[in-house]
Amino acid sequence: MGKPKRERALKDTEAKAVARSLRVSPQKLNLVAQLIRGKKVGAALADLTFSQKRIARDVKKTLESAIANAENNHDLDVDALVVAEAYVGKGLVMKRFSPRGRGKVGRIEKAFSNLTIVVREVEEAA
After folding, report:
1. What sign has the CA pseudo-torsion 88, 33, 20, 75?
2. How far apart are CA 13 and CA 65, in angstroms?
3. Is the pLDDT of residue 20 over 90?
4. Nearest to residue 17, comparing CAs of 46, 51, 59?
5. Where are the domains of the chain?
6. What is the CATH number of domain 14-121?
7. Segment 92-113, tens digit of pLDDT
């Protein structure tokens, strides 16, 4: 007994990985996500490896996780994978306060964000 199995949200040729609570603002993370959208996974991994952005390491880990999910859970061909979607969502925001001149206070917001990467298997155009 138990609940019936939930239908899969993605197509059979897709796999995804999600990284939650990354300590970077969504605006900065989206710059790195734009770098890999629509590229083959080999080229995307190479771009992230040599990127100067600090958060590129975490994006690379998430992409590698999506590739591993595609290979192990869904039996997809790794060489035919493309980054279909890479989107960023807002996470929580920690509010901190810093003293300023004349007894005033400055508000500092430390943003977190979530990253979702979807990889899709495509057929090679012969």
Report:
1. positive
2. 16
3. yes
4. 59
5. 14-121
6. 3.90.470.10
7. 999 999 999 999 999 999 999 9
* 98 Cβ contact partners less than 8 Å away, ≥ 6 residues apart: 105, 106, 107, 108
3-state secondary structure the chain: CCCCCCCCCCCCCEEEEEEEEECCCHHHHHHHHHHHCCCEHHHHHHHHHCCCCCCHHHHHHHHHHHHHHHHHCCCCCHHHEEEEEEEEEEEEEEEEEEECHHHCEEEEEEEEEEEEEEEEECCCCC
| Cα–Cα distances in angstroms (integers) from residue 66 to residues 81, 85, 117, in the given order | 10, 11, 7
What angle is formed at CA 70 by the lines to CA 55 and CA 37, rounded to 5 degrees?
45
Distance CA 118, CA 63 (A): 8
